[in-house]
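Page 47, continued from p. 46.
Same chain as before, 429 aa.
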Amino acid sequence: MVNEELSNPQVVLPTAADVEKAAETIDGVVERTPLQYSPRLSEITGAKVYLKREDLQGVRSYKIRGAYNVIAQLNEEQHQAGVVAASAGNHAQGVAYACRTLGAKGRIYVPSNTPKQKRDRIMYHGGDAVQLVVTGNSFDDAAAAAWQDAQESGATWVAPFDDPGTIAGQGTIAREVVEQLAELGEEPSMFVVPVGGGGLFSGVVTYLAEKSPKTEVVGVEPAGAACVAAALDMGGPVTLGDTDPFVDGAAVKRCGDVTYAVLNGHRKMIDLINVAEGSVCTEMLELYQNEGIIAEPAGALSVTALHHLRFIPGSSVVCIISGGNNDVSRYSEIIERSLVDQGLKHYFLVNFTQKPGQLRKFLDSVLGPHDDITLFEYVKRNNRETGAALVGIQLGTATGLHALLHRMEESGIQCERLLPGTPAYEYLT
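Result:
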């Protein structure tokens, strides 16, 4: 069934009926994940905030829903030809699990920045049923290679987001949430949804547009890869230039034709915002320290957005924790990005002259009582007497920056602040 109002000759759109059918297809295979009330976030927002814990899926993300729904519907000829997929990691795990469970062969393409943890989990779930191919520096690079493979080999392309079957599978999350809230005697006022290529966003909108049309759906993109916002602004999918790959599960340069058509047709019930990658890091740490949730960057997008939204007091707000495939080796970077985003971490090039006692003077007269040096490294290792040093300073409070800069100026020591986003900052830090 196609929604004629939103369709065009080139795009077949999923419907709520497709979501219902997908729910039947994945039943018994995909977990019905908990809807967890969050006292902390409810207190912060004034709303009743619920977390849809898709990080508790067997593959630790919602992507199993769409992948399994597509592969389970292959005919015998397609089954024999196998499948091809591209992913930053989570869709790949869903495809791998579905291949092993359904007895299909698959080749899965991932970019080189896919964390090792996700690569290992792909092979764990797929076993001998899948082959992992690492290529390119972004999801879009991997997708191009996988698409070419599918065209040449005749294998079925299992799209991570731009396919009605994938979208319908992801939409089963909305169906579950509506049922879970009904058991509590509530209806959803707002869904807050992480957005990469738009598959989950489209699936949620598809179901709610028919079953709960008064529900507002807010899509949350990483600031460094806001491809859906670009598409809606430009009147169709566009390819972004440079993107920030940090939120790897949502770092997509171009949204899909199907996802765009769905979202463009339901503009009245959706909103779209983006959040800084550093803020995502802060929320990842908050989720871990307060709720004990190990969310990956994309998994924390929805909760990060709560700080930028307004709510009707007491309304039911659902945040989808989309995945928990986070590599523990990344936590040093996560902490660093969080501190910088909060205004607590700053870097300077400090030029110490040959005068004796310059370092002591810097420590005594420049640093505040609650400030710490977290990095001290001479830029020119063969000229420590007069060469500049890269100095990282963590402030006691973000408001202390102005006083620090004033003390630097008064000290007479030549100090140059490195600003995030500049080439010097990226190179030296």
